[in-house]
User: Fold this.
Amino acid sequence: MSTIQTEAAVYSAVQSVVGSLHMAHTEWKDAPGLPDFSLLKRLARDQLIFLLEQLPGKKDLFIDADLMSPLDRIANVTILKQHEVDKLYKVELKPIVSSSDQLCFLIRPRIQTVKWISDLVNADKVAGRFRRYKIIFTPQKFYACETVLEEQGVYGDVTTDEWNFYILPLDDDILSLELPEFFRDNFLEGDQRWVTTAGSALRLLQSVYGSFSKVYGIGRCAKMVYESWRELMEDGEQRTRQPEFAKVFLVDRDVDFVTPLCSQVVYEGLVDDLFRIKCGSVEFGPDVTSSDKSIKVMLNSQDKVFSEIRNEHFSNVFGFLSQKAKNLQTAYDKRRGMDIQQMKAFVADELKGLKQEHRLLSLHIGASESMMKKKTKQDFQELLKTEHSLLEGFEIRECITYIEEHINRQVSMIDSLRLLCLLSITENGLLSKDYRSLKAQYLQSYGIEHLLTFANLRQLGLLEEQQAGETLTVMESKVGKLVNDKTVGKLTDAFSSLAKKSNFRALSKRLALVPKSGEEYDLRVPRDMAYVFSGAYIPLSCKLIEQVLERDGWTGMEEVTRMLNGQEFAVTGGSSSSEARSKTDAQRIVLVMFLGGCTFSEISALRFLGKERGCRFIVVTTAITNSSRLLEALLDNSA
Amino acid sequence: FVAYRGQTELLGPLRKIELYEMGWNLKDGLRECLVAAAPYGGPIALLKGHYRRSPSARPQLEIYSSSGLPLASFPWKSGVVKQLGWTVSDDLLCVQEDGTVLVYDLWGGFKRHFSMGNEVSQSQVLETKIFHSPYGTGVAILTGALRFTLATNIDDIKLRRLPEVPGLQEAPSCWAVLTQDRQSKVLVANGSQLFILDNTACTPVTPPGLSPQASSIVHMCVSFSYKYLALLTDSGHVWMGTSNLKEKLSEVDTKIKTPPKQMAWCRRPKSQQPSAVVMWDGLLIVVGECKETIQYHLDDDSVLVPELDGVRIISGTHHELLQEVPGACEEIFKIASMAPGALLLEAHKEYEKESQKADEYLREIKEQSLLSEAVRQCVEAAGHEHEPETQKTLLRAASFGKCFLSNFPPEQFVSMCRDLRVLNAVRDYTVGIPLTHTQFKQMTVQVLIDRLVYRKLYPLAIEVCRYLKTPEYQGVSRVLKHWACYKVQQKEESDEVIAKAVSVKLADAAGISYSEIATKAYESGRTELAIKLLEFEPRSGEQVPLLLKMKKSPLALSKAIESGDTDLVYTVVMYLKNELNRGDFFMMLRNQPVALSLYKQFCKHQEQDTLKDLFNQDDDHEELGNFYVKASYKDQRLEARVALLQSAVDEYYKAKNDFSAKTTEDEMRLLRFQRKLEEEKGEQLVGFSLHDTMTTLLSVGLHKHAEQLYKDFRVPDKRFWWLKLKALAEKEDWEELEKFGKTKKSPVGYLPFVEVCIKHHNKYEAKKYVSKVTPEQKVKAHLAVGDMEGAAEAAIERRNESEISTVLSRCSATTDHLLMERLNRAKATAVKK
Assistant:
């Protein structure tokens, strides 16, 4: 420790960074301890093994592609082999080559997959081949799937089971349902089948970790999940044990679309945006590893280097890492002048740790280098600037021009779409003229199939055309004939801000989401959650959570909830006696459930909020999302 | 009038307890009656006059409780009954000559019927036996063809035809059903030969030590537990042994050679003294291990009912229980017994008399440290006594003895008191279930409650549940549910009254399923009542299946949606899909968006065409358009694609979505154009976006065609310039680029020219365009080509602080020293301004 401190004194330039990180670290210790979520993994593993044993003998296991990584976190290949799994295949919806007499399918309850299995069974029947088939649906089976089995005439040939693997703990404070399709199914297709799944997940948490004293929520889906959860609780037995969480907050993704549409600039979020974190691990390519092969790294609190930088703004990260590298060098340098005995102790106790740290450090340095290369480039700066302008509501015309160019130059299919959506939400829809021209250009760039994408985006309210008949448009076109283009733009801006009741603007004003521009924001010493977006915007979702926890309910936020289409609720849970223990650790742990996904930026913001308030947040999400995943879920350009 | 009198008569090792004086009034007693009495003190069925086969005089079927109280009576209108019998759940089975078995409840209500198979109905039933096993109640039939057919469980009928018995010319002299090795078998006697019939084979067997003088086995009986077998030979010998025929227990000569009417085992579990009872007209003989037999006269025609721990004897007037004297009772009540229990009883008697002898007795027991044994004996004996007074005396003695024991566990005593209270209640004449304690323990409280419920003795059942503290879910709630199910079938009361009565009674009972009660109401034809009752069901999911059954589909659908359970919604939707015609089905979905979107999800994968129909039905042209567009790019053939797109165009126009229509038309034009070019130039183009098409055309030098697209498709100037710029730079056709730059004023400005050249590492070319760049972009342009001086110049000229800073940040301290100074100065003035 002392070496590190003396070293730090030398490099005073970066000291403040390290200092603030150190501060943060000590504060964390003060925060309440978290429940042990590895129990959930054990439960899931035991059940899976039980299910596999229901089909005794050697069998081939087919696994849904998106279940591969989560499964790997629960039971690795060795465990599967121990339970007589012979070969492992990924479900590819193609004919199979398996010589096994027993086929086991571990899948999500999707009609498509079930249909594929039915086809396999029927093909075997035609070929006169006898096999045993077992489908394990996770986390539950749906009637529709069974209907398909029935309609395809294989209901009697297949046995089905459920693996109630509801929750995968990704980290100490992140629990994921690993259901990316939740977002599209629930919000776009209006298919509510996952609601009970979310309810069951909460029920599972409750049965393992105790009941909650208070539940808040906002959004239609949140309300339904709560209802489903409540019903499950009524059905089962009540347990009166000391709860490990105090409060639960349920929030629908469609309450706040702005946050996931913004570019992420906090390290963990940025890694996700650039390299795509999958199920808590990331594959760094050759440009990061500076070798010819890719390396898979787990990103969680076990990684000491990562855990210190994950919540930092990326502009701080490089400095911190180089400091860390120097410290490491010093630690290595200790070897010099050691006698044999000391050297022996060093090799035994420290070297391994140092080597490990070294490896991780070099990876993260590689990653942040690659990040800097991409993100400090001119165009990224301009992109951020446009985003910030949109959030603040300034220079909208320039932004539109920027987006237009972005589309015309085919810079990025998803990014263009993202900017369009951001523009539409912050401006409460696009002017008809702009909407049509931008849409036409987009279709020219990326093909007519995106007509469907646009239909989806409109349905979700992500990208809308302002309804015609609004006086503004008429005015504008009249003015347009009189003055030149640029003036029209300016006038339009002026008009829109005056005449329209833009919910985002109003919300942003009421909740002070966008700090006053022009003020210096020191990203090294963040003063509020806005730091996760370079000080330009406080995530709406997190702000809502902060406000509700502060007020212990929705009182005084009537206008805000009205603008968010209501559907808010606050319920006091079972044991009122827990109020008396308000000082216990449990009371300072808040479970936040994001229905439809949450971003790493939001998690970072909540971690920051927890530090400020001396509490801790546990995030339960249907999946980790970011702008690309969110929008890709809504694309309709492929099959 | 006390109907239950515990008059106990000792008959050697056996005792005979009078259970009831029968409440019925039978003119001819049990003569000429077909009688069946259910074990465990169950009901008694009589079929009177079934021998007279004239259509004018129909036989009468009567059902009584064990105490002879009438439960049902009706004339028998079906075929000739060969045998009556009771199932384990107190249902009456009537086996007809043709092999049909009719099932009635104990109130005489017809439940169902089943057949024992074609073979039986053709060759007619000769004899029948109804038997009980762990698998339920079974029926065994000997047909006219001398073959056995057997069903082990009438609730899950699997008929088995047993193998032929060799040499069987006429009906066997006797037979019985055995349950061994988890299988039901038939033991048949043909003369002196004995066979065991199982599923596959007919095996001859010989009972060990059967006296040789017998030429024929005339009667046989199997014990209640199927463990023991008794055979009666024509020589009047009773052979007793294990039913696996491996061991002989004894053989006794009854000295009577006429065939008996009935024979039954009379033994209690774990007893060492097996005894069988053989009954002739007016005579009953008990045979045991010793050569002596006990005989006594019967005044009346009687029936033997074997029980777990004895035999009940039912006559026209009386109902008695014959059983081996239980050990504890014998110890205590034996004359001059010195057993600890007997001494304790004596001690207590003296104590009541306030005599000091009490102490002497007590001391005697304590000296042998047998006091706890004494208490146990008294408690146990109390359980076996039927007379409440005797029970009380014994329990008081036990309680007295307990006082002198410091840590005697109280459970046995307490539970015995409870059990006896329940037993006395159900043995009551009005209830008429004469259970012994042993039977009660075997039967369990659950089953007893079921039986009470079945007899509609709801208040008593609830009392029993409460008294025994049965968990509400299995106890009171269950009884109430049955009560409610019965209540809803009462035709005379109005729906409102019943619904109210049910809801009031069931209000706070836990775990009541109203849907079950409602189902009952519906089954008895009261749909309205069922709907009313369903309203009380808190779990909307539970309401759905019945609502569907009642054809209340809209209600079912909305309840399913209310439940939030999508599986349930699917169930209803799928049901409706098959039930309704398409139009009605769609109409119904239209009013239920949740169901509609679920169904759409299903159709997307399973029934694409239905999806189209759904949109059509709704006149949702927008969605139809989208549907066709989607379909178009799944199709590989160009003609099909264009045709589908044309359909989309039509729909979009109908939806008044000119934008989408026009765009789609453009796409059709583009597709045709791409195909034409593909054919002409061999470039892969079909399916590309407009942008990509143009990029491809430009990159292969088909500038004219690209330009044609540019004009035809109203491509914005900017896009075209970007495209061309990029294409030319990629080919490093700098000459053409320069020419292009001069064609007219660039709509994208000239900075892109600079950047594109730099991107392809041509600083020389890049510099050509720097001068053309707008003032706002000058600095950027200079920086792009690495001209620090120029950049500084431009920035200073524009007095723009941020631009100056940008340039400064790019300067290196070593080489651009002077420049930096200048910039810093300029920055200072700019800031001041």
